[in-house]
Design brief:
- This protein has a single domain (3-205), classed as TorD-like, CATH 1.10.3480.
- The chain contains eleven helices and no strands.
- It is globular and about 45 Å long.
- 60% of the residues lie in helices and 0% in strands.
- The mean pLDDT is 93.
- The protein is mainly α.
- Pfam families: Nitrate_red_del (PF02613).
């Protein structure tokens, strides 16, 4: 285990990233359970919050948080925000950047592909049970961020393997695409902040990743 994972502060920063960002990929701003989280971001001072955000430079974190607060300037109930979430993550139209890893790494570009099954096997082998949302494939970026936070609290010795084998293999590729197709600043900022947070964590832990071929 990396020596930094012995530090409670380092684990708490990892948990903060996963707990804070994960719900925004999983929850509808209006119908979901994350309304308070959206409202908390709306009230942020991007400069102050950027100085505190872990694993990302202050300047970049401020820029991405400013995009997120801009996207919330008209309130959580704003139609543009709500419909953008549904366009990006729900459908029914074809999603411009699907949030599941196997869509990018599986030759057939399918949900529940081999990378999903590999993550499921890894979770089972390490005694990790799903506690919410049994229908969504395990390699949904939101679920993976929430699991990262859980690992930081419960099984920190697994973080490097989880990131190196299951998250970082596709997260930057997907999140860059998501930022490109987002038409609402909140989700552009969210994608960029998540991307650089994971990449910053990769750098701090010195994780070497074997990147797969992308089919999308």
């Amino acid at each position: 285990m990396h020596e930094k994972l012995d530090q409670a502060d380092f684990r708490s920063r990892i948990a903060f990233v996963g707990e804070t960002l994960g719900p925004f990929f999983l929850q509808d701003p209006v119908k979901g359970d994350a309304r308070a989280a959206f409202e908390a971001v709306a009230a942020l001072d991007p400069h102050e919050a950027g100085e505190e955000w872990p694993f990302v430079s202050d300047e970049h974190a401020e820029r991405y948080l400013a995009l997120m607060t801009e996207g919330l300037a008209e309130g959580v109930d704003n139609d543009d925000l709500v419909w953008e979430y549904r366009r990006l993550f729900i459908g029914p139209a074809k999603k411009p950047a699907p949030p599941w890893g196997s869509v990018y790494t599986d030759r057939e570009c399918v949900v529940f592909g081999e990378s999903t099954l590999a993550l499921r096997r890894w979770m089972r082998e390490n005694g990790i049970e799903r506690t919410t949302d049994e229908k969504t494939p395990e390699d949904h970026i939101g679920l993976m961020l929430v699991l990262l936070a859980w690992l930081a609290d419960a099984k920190p010795e697994l973080i490097e393997q989880y990131l190196g084998d299951h998250v970082l293999t596709w997260s930057s590729h997907f999140l860059e695409q998501l930022a490109d197709v987002a038409e609402q600043p909140f989700y552009e900022g969210l994608a960029l902040l998540a991307k650089e947070s994971l990449e910053g964590l990769q750098s701090e832990l010195e994780i070497e990743v074997e990147y797969p071929r992308y089919y999308r």
